[in-house]
Amino acid sequence: MIKVGVVGGAGYTAGELLRILANHPQVEISCVQSSSNAGKPFHEVHQDLIGDMEGTFATDLDLNVDVIFICSGHGKTQEFLDTYQVPENVKIIDLSNDFRLEAVDNDFIYGLPELNLEAIKSAKHLANPGCFATAIQLAVLPLAAKGVLTEDVHVNAVTGSTGAGQNPSRTTHFSWRNNNVSIYKAFSHQHLGEINQSVKQLQNDFAHDIKFLPVRGNFPKGIFASLYTTVKASEEEVVSWYRDFYKEAAFVHVLDEAPDMKQVLNTNKCLVHVEKHGDTVLVTSVIDNLIKGASGQAVQNMNLMFGLDQKEGLRLKSSSF
């Protein structure tokens, strides 16, 4: 059994992570730390865990584990590493953006399985990708792999309110978010750094912009991303690139028809659709922002790091309702 510790256990991503891990046949949840909810039963914060997981949040993390998932806010992982002397044999999976970008002193492997599968298998420290970054990269990387990105890439992606985290704010308040749509961080979203990094990993000469418009949706979960750029190849050829790129992918499916976001909610799937309009290729990509965009992908990475089947504990079902 893999002994798991969770840091920052009260947030949305941690709640999804615990729901998945509680039903993972190879996992024992040893300790769940939360500074804000220490001493409270898990089900008081994550009410869907009633009957599935007993115990209370701890003030401090017990380091007698095999892997630590860090679900704290962005900028908190380095603070955790400065506070705790994590043993050399303990693996770390970080769900923040602290270590996603390559740097001289950064030994974290970027954890997009469809890009870095073999490196993830031997990783000691892993940086889990961002939610928007996951959906957008899975839409664009097959084009980068073919070296055909010769112009700007335009992206519009809508996300649910859970993408903003559990702490309430003006733009996550129900009366503001419901029946409302708005753009934020136009062309400057923090996930652009990791997206560009991955594109250049496959197409080193990419010298154009990824022009990204993030949109707040009036729903709680999911990301619907649409991407377009100029590619002078037939639709059949471009679709074949995508099918070939994802032929071994455990959770990415290339569809003949454009997907609906509801098809992926509460699953670790990404559904991708490709079509051509003249010289313009349009790619649609949908994921659950908290699962494939965060906690499910983190468990997928854990499975790879411990030599398990990628799908272990992740055979989650969506609903048609």
Describe this structure in words.
This protein is an alpha/beta fold and about 325 residues long. It has two domains: about 140 residues, Rossmann fold, CATH 3.40.50.720; about 160 residues, Dihydrodipicolinate Reductase, domain 2. The chain is about 25% helix and about 20% strand. It is built from nine helices and 13 strands. The protein has a seven-stranded mixed β-sheet. It has a six-stranded parallel β-sheet with strand order 2-1-3-4-6-5, covered by helices on one side. Helix 1 links the parallel strand 1 and strand 2. Helix 4 runs parallel beside helix 9 and helix 5 runs parallel beside helix 7. The chain is globular, with a radius of gyration of 19 Å. The two termini are about 35 Å apart. The mean pLDDT is about 95.
The rough form would be described as globular
What is the alpha-carbon Rg in Å? 19 Å
Total helical segments: 9
Estimate the helix proportion, in percent: 25-40%
Low-confidence stretches: none
Provide the succession of SSEs. EHEHEHEEHEHEHEHEEHEEEH
InterPro entries: AGPR (IPR050085), AGPR_AS (IPR023013), AGPR_dimerisation_dom (IPR058924), AGPR_type-1 (IPR000706), NAD(P)-bd_dom_sf (IPR036291), Semialdehyde_DH_NAD-bd (IPR000534)
Family: Belongs to the NAGSA dehydrogenase family. Type 1 subfamily.
EC number: 1.2.1.38
Keywords: Amino-acid biosynthesis, Arginine biosynthesis, Cytoplasm, NADP, Oxidoreductase
